[in-house]
Amino acid sequence: MGLFRKNENWYIDYYVNGRRQREKIGTNKRQAETVLQKRKVQLAEDRFLNVRIDSRIQINDIAKDFLVYSKNNKRSYVRDMELVHNLLKVFDDKRLNEITPAYIEKYKEIRLSTDNRKPATVNREVACLKAIFNYAIKNKKATENPVRAVKMLKENNTRTRYLSEEEIKRLLAACPKGLRPIVRTALLTGMRLGEILNQKWEDIDYDRGIILIKNTKSGHPREIPIVAALKKVLSYAFDNSDGIHTFCNEQRQPYSSIHSLFDNAVKRAGIVDFRFHDLRHTAASYMVMRGLDLVTIMEILGHSTIKMTMRYAHLSPVHKRESMEIFCSAMDTIWTPSVKEGHSQETENMLFIDDKTSDWRRGRVVDGGGLENR
Question: What confidence tens digit (pLDDT) does each residue in 338-355 have?
Fold first, then answer.
């Protein structure tokens, strides 16, 4: 802090939350000194009040308020509940001033090593913690967000884990009665978990034969055709629903979360390294392997770009070969002469094929433009 003179005027210079502030006071130096002293007192009082705020409030109290806000304003409320639950396992009794960048780094290490979580999962949890602090600051219950000083982990987003046909059978057999239609729907449509759990009967148009997904990750609604196999699943779900939500538990209540149910089913089925979102990968993989074109798959899954869908393209070399056979056969008719026309030398020159041996590897182009046997 200080004061300085520029031309005939005096200025005071100080910092607020790390940002430099300058104020033009006037030509009176004593007045500038008085204002500067006043700013010092104000900053000291603010810092004292801020420390008192951050040391008085606990993270679990803020987290509860944040979840109320999330329920009323966010599509990711179910996911937020899970993230907060994981965060409070470590931070539950901590006051806001105790959650430092160093402590958050320790949390990341615990989740990665002890709990064996993936970097992507830990990043989502840290991002949720950041959102909680932002919410607290907005409501004047915190002054700083320690997560801003924390780097996210590097993620590998190319994972394409999908089930074999035998694993699909084992998983469905291991699912509880209420969970099975949810898993079948994910396998048939590639819908995300949140989209399935938030699905309501009013969003299903039987006249047009579509499921309308309004709240999507991309923000753009999409439609999924209701085919025979999916109609069976929806019919079963209707008989066990509350009449509002498409999928309900055995008590006819909508699910808030199914992760524990699903994880237990996966264990009973003897399947390793598999999460619910991998059902979406499974659906996409089988769509490709059963011959659906990538543009159609992109529209069904709701991918924002074809690049996201292309990650599955390598899974169907047989389909690719069959498609090339159809394409090349059609093209071949353009230049291959009919039986009546016969094979002219000009045609052979155009084809670059030794027709006598029927072996393209035994012919080569010569200077004259024709073919010469090796």
Answer: 555 555 555 545 544 444
Helical segments of the chain, H only? 29-56, 59-73, 77-91, 101-109, 119-138, 165-174, 180-189, 193-197, 228-239, 259-268, 278-289, 294-301, 306-310, 317-335, 345-351
In a shared domain, residues 99 and 185: no
Place of tokens 């509880």: 176
Residue 159 lies in a domain: no
Residue 279 domain boundaries = 165-317
Residue 166 corresponds to which amino acid?
Answer: E
Quick check: 337 and 328 in contact, CB under 8 A?
Answer: no
pTM over 0.70: no
**Is 204 in contact with 211 (CB distance < 8 Å)?**
yes
Q: Are residues 95 and 234 in the same domain?
A: no
Specify whether 176 is located in the same domain as 255.
yes
27, amino acid identity: T
